[in-house]
Design goal:
Layout: H1 2-8, H2 16-31, E1 66-69, E2 75-78, H3 83-93, E3 108-115, E4 132-139, E5 144-148, E6 154-158, H4 165-169, H5 175-188, H6 199-213, H7 218-227, E7 234-241, E8 247-254, E9 258-264, E10 271-278, E11 282-286, E12 289-293, E13 298-310
Antiparallel strand pairs: 1-2, 3-4, 3-13, 4-5, 5-6, 7-8, 8-9, 9-10, 10-13, 11-12
Length: 317
């Protein structure tokens, strides 16, 4: 991962809080159509989330996916049969706890990721040629977050509204139950005026954030993988690439305006990161005026680099 560290030297220090705030403003503006006569948009619930490990060469039997070498030495992706099969395979793989230390009260989950930063405000496009490395610490109950304030100091604050690892672990843990809890959390989150994004996209992005940033019990992670194929609009993408250049397979939600991908390692089905881009051209308004975002514009690109349980914020596993 030394190559990832090198990226940071050419980009300014940025905190998770600052990045989330900027992205929320831009995505909110992008989704708000230009004013039209005699039409008033009704606010809807929203929780815009989207932020998250090495290229694996593997062969899976029984119609699964794999990366194999052809005669030219290049990797070839063998497709998984369906999104339902991807969900089941990922759920079975999730039965193994990914952490060396079992999460317990008072512990923290350290997360390191790299993202493609915004190209230039107020444009929502991310710059795929640059990377910013982020580190944060989340309490294992999901209720507190610690991050760098941009001046080398850690700041601990209460996590925003939404579902936590502790909420999802309340039994019985089933795909239907965890999906219902996430749907309820999305519905209860205050919405910015004019946001007409579908609930399904916000639910998929919430699942992605939970997988990336919270210490989930194996049965909860398995239930989330089985829940993803149950969401309307979710399909499988056979070859997806995260912000670290690692190839994988993805759960891909395609909505009216955007496609959002949760990328998994093709052998172990662990979380690699995300990618999102617009699928239709749209006009949006900002204080600076009316702007157009063309179809195919990348709006998020992340890679989950490292995670582990530690005793307190500031420690690294």
């Amino acid at each position: 991962m030394d190559e990832i560290k090198d990226f940071r030297g050419s980009t300014p220090v940025i905190t998770r809080q600052a990045e989330d705030a900027a992205r929320a403003r831009l995505l909110r503006a992008m989704r708000e159509p230009a004013p039209a006569p005699r039409r008033r948009l009704t606010p809807r619930p929203v929780w815009r989330l989207a932020f998250a490990a090495s290229l694996s060469v593997a062969v899976a039997v029984g119609g699964g996916i794999a990366l194999t070498g052809d005669d030219g030495g290049r990797s070839v992706l063998i497709p998984v049969a369906s999104v339902q099969q991807l969900g089941e395979r990922a759920a079975r793989a999730a039965a193994t706890n990914p952490y060396e230390t079992v999460p317990s009260p008072g512990k923290w989950l350290y997360v390191k990721e790299t993202i493609a930063p915004l190209r230039e405000e107020p444009e929502p496009e991310v710059d795929r040629s640059k990377r910013t490395t982020l580190e944060l610490w989340n309490s294992v109950d999901g209720r507190q977050t610690a991050l760098d304030d941009g001046k080398g100091r850690l700041v601990i604050h209460e996590a925003g509204p939404g579902v936590t690892a502790a909420d999802l672990a309340e039994g019985p843990v089933t795909p239907e139950r965890v999906l219902a809890r996430i749907r309820a959390a999305v519905a209860e989150t205050p919405a910015p005026p004019g946001d007409d994004g579908p609930d399904e996209q916000r639910i998929v992005e919430t699942i992605s954030r939970v997988m990336n940033e919270q210490a989930l019990e194996p049965e909860v992670r398995a239930a989330l993988f089985r829940a993803l194929p149950m969401i309307e609009g979710v399909s499988v993408k056979q070859d997806a690439v995260d912000a670290a250049g690692r190839h994988g397979v993805a759960f891909a939600y395609t909505g009216r305006w955007e496609r959002f991908e949760i990328i998994l390692n093709p052998e172990e089905y662990t979380y690699l990161g995300t990618y999102g881009e617009t699928v239709a051209t749209r006009t949006y308004t900002t204080p600076a005026g009316t702007r157009e975002v063309k179809a195919g514009t990348p709006v998020v690109w992340t890679a989950h680099l490292r995670a582990g349980i530690v005793d307190e914020p500031g420690e690294r596993p």
